[in-house]
Structure prediction request, 1258 residues.
Amino acid sequence: MSGFLSLLARNRLALAGAVVIVTVVLLALVTPLLPLANPDATNTAIRFQRPFQGEALLGTDHLGRDLLSRLLWGTRLSLAVGFTAAVAAATLGATIGIIAGYYGGRTDNIIMRGVDMLMAFPYILLALAIVAALGPGLMNALIAVAAVNIPFFARNIRGVTVGIAHKEFVDAARLSGLSNARIIVSEVLPNVIPVVVVAMSTTIGWMILETAGLSFLGLGSQPPQADLGSMLGEARSALITNPHTSLVPGLMILVIVMAINLLGDGVRDALDPRLKSGALSRPMPATRVHRETPPAPPAGEAVLALQGLQTQFHVKQRKYRAVGGVDLALHAGECLGIIGESGSGKSVAALSVMGLVASPPGVITGGAVYYKGRDLIGAPYETLRQLRGDRVAYIFQDPLATLHPLYTVGEQLIEAVRAHHSVSRIQARRHAIELLKSVRIPNAQDRIDSYPHEMSGGMRQRVGIAMALSNDPEVIIADEPTTALDVTVQAQILSLLDDLRRERGLAIIFITHDFGVVAQLCDRVAVMYAGRIVEEGPTPAILNTPQHPYTARLMACVPELGQGRRELAAIPGLPPAVDQLPTGCAFAERCDLVRPACTAGDIALTTSGPRKLRCILPPLPREARV
Amino acid sequence: MAGYILKRLLSAVPVLLGISVIVFVIMALIPGDPATAILGSYATPENVEKLNRDLGLDRSLVHRYFIWLGNMLQGDFGRSFSLNRAVLDEVLERFNATLVLAGTSFVLCSLLGVAAGVVSAARQYGAADKVITFAVLLGISIPSFFLGMMMILMFAVNLRWFPVSGMWPIYGARDLGALISHLTLPALSLAVVATGVIARLSRAAMLEVLRQDFIRTARAKGVHERAVIWRHALRAAMVGIIPVLGLQAGFVLSGAVYIEMVFQWPGVGRMLVDAILKRDILLVQGGVVLVASCYVLFNIAVDVAQSLLDPRIRT
Amino acid sequence: MRDALTFTDLSKTFAVAKGLLGRAKSQVHAVQPLSMSVEHGETLGIVGESGCGKSTLARMLVGLLPPSTGVIEIDGHPLDPSDRAAFGKKIQYVFQDPISSLNPRKTVRQIMEAPLIHLHGLNSAERAKRIREIFAAVNLREEFLDRYPHEFSGGQAQRIGIARALAADARILILDEPVSALDVSVQAQVLNLLSDLKQQLGLTYLFISHDLAVVEAVSDRVAVLYFGSVVEVGPAEQVFAAPRHPYTKLLANSAPVVGRPLAQPEMRETELPDPLNPPPGCAFCGRCPRRIARCDTERPPLLTQSDGVSIACHNPL
Prediction:
């Protein structure tokens, strides 16, 4: 709660809205105590007095009534009516929505049919029909406005409830012996209330507008009693001659509703957990770069060389060092594996190459990526764009999420070709069919017009590969391309990738967490931990004689098929959080060979022959390290 | 596709029946003797008795509903006592005027709202985003009837650019130019709120879509950022925006009631308010049922548009 | 001695593609009638690819999904599917996603207390004592009790999920992909914890996973599921080392193993059969290199062989 309030207070606009609305509410509350003229006392002798001229501060209306007094009493009434209507609609709507959403099935069906029926009316028709039946009057207008808003709340809350009712913790509560009623109260409700509050705070302004509207039409408050809407309605006939009588109530409505909307947005932002992490900002076309001088290009003929690459996530005051200085070289025709656990920075390092790390919050803070001697970090957007997909292509993890759901795979392939080559649509389509054939999709001529959702996971990933191949790139960066697939499909995709790279001489960076995949596909492998490479070398060497204790122990704790039932050698503890990295070796805390020098200072990646190692221990035989 | 449209049309039948039931039930709530309520307290006893017979008020509620429904299906919505005219004729004539006003506003607010939302999302936290966000906030906070009144003061009374009210000039030709000059102010006033709402939701939908993996794929392919925004992101965002447009059409239609009052537009909204104040219940009933039915059909069109856009819901 | 858990002809059918009038047009058999039993203290591994029905089976066994047909017996007593509390006391469930199985707005203590209150009706002193015992057993510090789920890592949250399942005092745990959401270094910690708990508390496990190596490492027996049916059941050491069913062999050959060269185990690019239009014979026959004429027309029954392995195949290896 205090966290919520402080979040709200930090939002300056919301705070301004809160100040205004609190002031207005306080004024409305103390109105009966203020020394105001009788709001209903008519005095035609002083009708249409201008503001600040006579006794009445804001002037008088067509019957000579004191506008200030009427304004405050009217505000009081409008606020009360709007707020009551909002609470009533939210409570009833949320109840209906929760019941429909939680029970589902026939209950849901019947309730939602009714709700749809009510929503089939443009809302004011329903309100007018209700007022027509009940007769004009403020109370009836309130009922009408509340009633027409119930379906909106019901539908909104139902959607949220359905989401929660299918969460695993609700199943867990069921297994803990809770009854349905109890689950609704103790599991569903606490998770729905923030949504109800948000929905209410963003619609309360709307409710005030609507009740004012009905009063404006003469269907709400009846004379002499006035709310803001009826004041405006009565002033309408004198609009041209005496605009102040319209301006006074109109501006008041505007101020109130605007303040409520500002506050409502603030409440929404403070209660919506997605916004807390800044996740709702959209990623820019290329990752932001904020670095000092780039390092010099490396010697050698690497196609792609990462030099001291550093990528961070800046979330509020925190800096997460996802990639903390990575050096890697990829040579032509080579398959380089990067292996690591989640949070090791392997994907972020790979996405940094073409500036595809979501930014905000990602920032490349140091190092360089040389493609054939050209630094890509900080390169102009157009340079990056021309290389993306043309020279360096990506294959991503989940092919359902990474293909556009509304375009056929053909359209997406054709677009990939035409982004870099000015060829006709027909030529591009022919090329796309060839591509689909090359990734062994049966009936390529027909499948090219399929949408991604019409394909299986394996077929979709083949399309992803075809897309990466569409411009004959030199480098393919494959970010866990088989992780989301079943094991039999994974085997098909891996052997396809292996064949393709040999046929076409592709250089591949293959990111995975699976030693088996690395062993079968990669020539070289780099092991990452807490944002840095801890060990690198030819795959057979690393897998047979791991020298970093982390590599050795990680391999030991993965069960391998064919070894039967056994106790696993688990690594105690957790990887360090990358916003609080320790000095020295990041693995020291979990390593049983740790010695004081490990945590004394930075440990360099040392080269010996084809291998690199970031560890100060002398090379030990494998058994001693595990 | 044709199958889908047919399915949606068939599914509208229960909704239309539901609408008629709801309207019928609400009207049955009118306290006291309905005939007196309908005809007002000045009604002669003969008239009351005749109306009671016409309405079948000596029968059961269900029976009365079916009589009413049957009459409606034959195009007989009854006669308005206050206008002494067939309800159907009056409503259709008035609805034409409303369609001109609300239709123009709807097109305006859809185009402006979506464009503003896209620009705002693509330049999140930039100057354009801030200006649009503020304008949108102002737009959704101002009562449309107040805005309309201020527009009259500003553009009709002070600047004399546009006429103060009405749909046609009292004297002079009823041509397109005259219509446009009469339409401009009310259509703009009516569009403002809906534009704000649409812009807001479009911005949110775009931001949501821009974070999706397939946007990263498009960028990784080397697609130009303009195409990423307008072809990839907007198309996916439209899946979320189109239902909002359908909903907003209802709001525009609703807001038209206020605007018709302010600008003396001879539409169905003003007719309904007058009918309620005169307790011309048959006119209210007929107007509500007809307008609501049109809105249902419009929403079917929205659903069909949605299914054209999204192959996943085409069945 | 009676088996800890027996289910007979357990099946689940979902109606899909509602027609115009809301009538079901077609049905999907997510789980074909299955019969199996698990001995006291045994770990039965269930392995299969997505869409094989393993999660549907798990949810039926804990009473979260009513079966279309079949009976579940625990210690020889049939369970009443409508009596949730009886279910919960005998059989519990550990979820795949540890974070989403914990209500974000409840403290760990509230989460732990729910089964103690609602299944066992313990008073507050008894509850505190019981929670202390369980937390000691799963190596969790008691200071965690007053924190909220989002403060925990995946591995810690999964320990809490296991602790909650233990709180119900059930003897049988259904572990549905309990380590799939965890990183490999944490996976081993949780797997070892599960194995310790089983020995200490004499538990019986049904361990469901798509990861062949993990299932092999923890199970006594392994059942291989394909398209809603069991195709092979046998001792863990044997199933993947010497597969008898062609599908099991395909699985075993597909798993990437260090030291085995990459080879495409299937010659064609093949797919699962359409669940709306299942083949009349063996579901695997479209992909099977050992297919014979009978496979197309006749569904092979699950038969126990002389070596104790059961297979559903007309032409086994």
